[in-house]
Every structure is written in C-alpha cells, then in structure tokens.
Amino acid sequence: MTAASEDRDRLLMHAAIDGELDPANAIAVEQRIAADPALAQERARVEALRRALREQLPPEAVPPALSARIRRVVGIGEGRAQPSWRALAASVALAAVLSSGGTWYAARPPAGDMVTEAVVASHVRALMAPQPADISSSDQHTVKPWFAGRIPQAPRVVDLASEGFPLVGGRIDVVGRTPVPSLVYKRRQHLISLTAIPGASASAAPRSQTAQGFTLIGWAAGGVSYWAVSDLNRDELETFARAFREAPL
C-alpha cells in the first residue's frame, strides 16, 4: 500500500467516524479497517481521544454578551433579517480573532487542581483499558517519533530500564482542553503515567501529593510541567522522578 493510499484511507476513516460518508462508502471503509490492523488501531485511538474530549470538555453555552457582539458585527438585529456583504466580511474577521483567542485559551496551562484530577483520571482509564498505551514499545526512539503529527510537540523520552523503570509506551491524554503526551513506565507490576504539559512558566522543585489513592509527583523543567502518577509508594515514585530529571538528553 502506498503512502497516498494510506493517507486516503485514514481521511476516509475520520470521515466515517464523523458520520460524513454515505452508506456505501461507510461499508467500504469498514471493510478496509477490518483488513488493516494499523488502520483499526488508529480508529480505536481516535475514538478513545474523542471520548476523552467529551468527558473533559462539556458543551458550554455562548455567553449572551458575546452572542450580542457577534450579531452586531454581522449586522443581524431587530428589523434586519439578512446581513450585508460588509457585515459578512466583518464576521469572517471576527471569527478569525475569536478562533485565535480560543486557541490561546485551549493551550494555556490549566489550574493545579484540574491538572491533578485530569492526570489521575487519565491514569485510571489507562489501567482499565486493554492496553495502557496507544503505542507500545520499550524503545524510546520508537515512542518519541510516534507523537509527531499527533500533537504539536513530542515529549522528552528517556530509557530508565537500568534504573528499574522500563518504558512501556506512550499515549495522548487531554488536560485542560489540550491533547498532551503521556509516557508509560513500569516498576514490577505497577504502572507509572508521566504526563508532560507545555506552558510551565519556570523551573520548579518537585512536589508530591496524593489524590484518589494515587501518589503524584509534579515538577517543571524547560517550559514543561511534568506529573508522574502511580499506586507506587512515595519513595519509589520520587526515585523515578529523580531518575527521569537527571537522565541525559
């Protein structure tokens, strides 16, 4: 199969998930997915991400003031059923401004409590899933490139097998309305989720806490906020966090 045909099948798969295909094409796509394990895995990943987005991002009503502002700019008001072409042009410009502002809102670092709740919830979902990672590999050079094209920035991935924390793989979680990378490590029979959230303002000393029966270690480095969560005891999780921070780049 060529790269072009793979891209076409992937696009059709996304269209099928969104319900945009007619019945005949939907059936054809399902047949391709059934015959292609990689495509089936990609669909499972996308559907899992959609579910996570629905859980983390409940629908929000448009604020009345914003709605009124848009109607004024577009030119829709009392006694005016259709906007003028100037109003329509202005609405396009306003949409661009609003969408860029929405992008900033989605990408800004979330508040602390929301972060801990989100990383714990993602860890619990991973424990309940058939596989805790979207990409399963102990090779850091396989896991890191997998994130390319799926999220804006690939995470730092280090090999900690010699420290007793072998790499299991990686997945994409959602924290504060933003898809973020999570690495999965293992300590005996315990799994560790390490989530990297871009946007940390400065480096910070590690801090630990407990939430919902799990231990969390958080720190910031290189403009990224890291959160490690596991049911490991605090000492072992702190050992993991220290090994990750001190590992060579």
What do you see in this structure?
There is one protein chain. By secondary structure, the chain is of the alpha+beta class. The chain has a domain at 112-246: Phosphorylase Kinase, domain 1 (2-Layer Sandwich). It is 48% helix and 21% strand. It has 8 helices and 7 strands. It has helices at 3-17, 23-35, 37-56, 64-74, 85-107, 112-128, 140-146, 234-246, and strands at residues 135-136, 167-175, 178-187, 190-198, 204-211, 214-221, 224-230. It has a 7-stranded antiparallel sheet, with helices on both faces. A hairpin with a 2-residue loop joins strand 3 and strand 4. The two termini are 36 Å apart.
Notable traits:
alpha+beta, 7-stranded antiparallel sheet, Phosphorylase Kinase, domain 1, 8 helices, globular, 249 residues
Write the layout of secondary structure elements.
Blueprint lengths: L2 H15 L5 H13 L1 H20 L7 H11 L10 H23 L4 H17 L6 E2 L3 H7 L20 E9 L2 E10 L2 E9 L5 E8 L2 E8 L2 E7 L3 H13 L3
Antiparallel strand pairs: 1-2, 2-3, 3-4, 4-7, 5-6, 6-7
Mean pLDDT: 78
N/C terminus separation? 36 Å
- Supply the CATH superfamily name of the domain at 112-246: MucB/RseB, C-terminal domain
* Class by alpha and beta content: alpha+beta
Number of strand elements: 7
Order of helices and strands: HHHHHHEHEEEEEEH
Principal-axes shape call: globular
Task: Please identify the top-level CATH class of the domain at 112-246.
Answer: Alpha Beta
Query: Number of helix segments?
Result: 8
**Major β-sheet annotation:** 7 strands, antiparallel
Percent of residues in beta strands: 15-25%
